[in-house]
Specification:
The structure is a single chain. Helices cover 49% and strands 11% of the residues. It is an alpha+beta fold. It has a 4-stranded antiparallel sheet with strand order 2-3-7-6, with no helix packed on it. Strands 1-4-5 form a 3-stranded mixed sheet, with helices on one face. β2 and β3 form a beta hairpin. α11 packs across α13. The radius of gyration is 22 Å and the shape is globular. Keywords: Flavoprotein, Monooxygenase, Oxidoreductase, Plasmid. It comes from Rhizobium grahamii. Belongs to the HpaH/HsaA monooxygenase family. Pfam families: Acyl-CoA_dh_2 (PF08028), Acyl-CoA_dh_M (PF02770), Acyl-CoA_dh_N (PF02771).
Amino acid sequence: MTDINGAWGAPPSERFERLAQTFRPIFARIAERAVDRDLAHELPFDAYEWLKTSGFSRLRLPVATGGLGATLPELFGLIIELAAADPNLTNAYRSHFGFTEDLLNAPDSAWRDAWLKRLGQGETVGSGFSELGDTPLGSYSTRLVRDGANWRLDGEKFYTTGSLYADWITLGAMDGDGQPIGALVPTSAPGVEIIDDWDGFGQSLTASGTARFRDVEIADELIKPSAVRFSYSGGFFQLVHLASLAGIGRAAANDLARHVAARKRVYSRGNASRSAQDAQVQQVVGKVRGAAYSAGSIVLQAAKALQRAYDANQGGDQEQIKLADRNAELEVSQSVTVVTSLILDASTVLFDALGASAAKRGHGLDRHWRNARTIASHNPRIYHDRIVGDFAVNGTTPGPQAGVGVAREEQAERTDA
């Protein structure tokens, strides 16, 4: 996965270890209080800032703009390691890295240069696309309309992951003509209210709750030139979740090994005087570790497909772009159910190697399953399996991911047909 001597697999590049040295002490510091934060519902503002100050938010930016010039496999290798420390933070940075990809794939322009500069100075971006209620698929109830030289924003978003920690929110809305429009909104602007009301049983510290916008003034320079995301965005955002799952698996494996090594009590039907020497207990530990290893390997393989899509976009050949985007989407979709099943199973069977005391909340072992189950509920895996099957049988190219909403009448008729 990212530690060859620890039997987690070779890193994704020759320079990866050098790149990772900056962040591993921070990951370790984050991991120290991961259980305590989870138990107390303590939002990781400090940890988010440690990552930001260290340059984690600038990983994908070109060196010329203050970044580290990381490839996508290198980025996902580090996301796996951060998720092993605390997967809440990988989710909190997910939208930021997505917006970074938007910039890296955008045409040259003054707008692009300005935002590369802002991100190069360490500014970060949270999410503002999803909405609750009866909003139709592909649309928004949020409105962003022209008001003289500027714009006015009104509406409400949910699943605004990371926005409570970030400097900006990237969002989608409808303009005065009913057309999709995108903008960057300062999180500190008058009329912006971000609420930590996400009450899921997992990933509870991602700040994925409500953001309200009441008569917010938006400067013209903050309007995106295009509301269209980068072409491989569906696979990218899904792979962040899979990398988070791989990191959860690694943390679960490490926690389990540590608990087994320290355990003194044994069962009368056991196979040794210590659990650490019990062959059946060792087998469970090995199974959990194998699941984590396999999940990480799959993620890094799929990250190579995303890198090929990025490279094709830089080349400009439309046929190559279309093919590379399709392949990246399929490779990620083929990974979803496998990685999800591996980690959900691993985070459950780990308890088979321990006694009832392992269920004590203070140990925090349940957080691995809760976090994994919550992440796995995004973008249901049943649809990924169908998409892959349709391609294999009929050669069908995956359709675009258009979020969640109520089907319009014509969409419902098409689906029913």
